Amino acid sequence: MNKQGKWLALALLMASTTLTADDLAGADKILCTAVQATRCSVDDECRSGSPWEWNIPQFIEVDLKKKELATTAASGEDRVTPIKNLERDEGVLYLQGIEGGRAFSFVIDEATGSLSVAVASRAGSTMVLGACTPR
Questions:
Q1: Which residues of the chain have a pLDDT value below 50?
Q2: pTM score
Q3: Could you give the CA distance from residue 90 to residue 45 in angstroms, rounded to a whole number?
Q4: By the 8 A CB rule, do 11 and 3 touch?
Q5: Which end of the chain is more exposed for a tag (fewer CB within 10 A), N or C?
């Protein structure tokens, strides 16, 4: 395939992904998955890798009515974290909280389900990219 053909195939793949994305507008329960993580330590360089390398759950249930984040039953863990601040603004969902010496912030695009998470502590920061779907 020539260079122009590769770009066309990539553009079509991106367009089809956008067209089939999940719309989260109005959803009260959301299921999110972590796809990629980067961890930066104050004493070290940043490293990217799989979320499970750092005990990041594969799936997180987001309950907007209860203002909670929770691991799924399949994870074998029973982790629940309160959401202290929750705001919907112009198609973006913002979730923030503090627990266990860490501050977290989720930014979820309601039209596409794309997820960006930052978790900060004294020791450093972890950034996670992922996707969400209505539950």
A1: 1-20
A2: 0.80
A3: 35
A4: no
A5: N
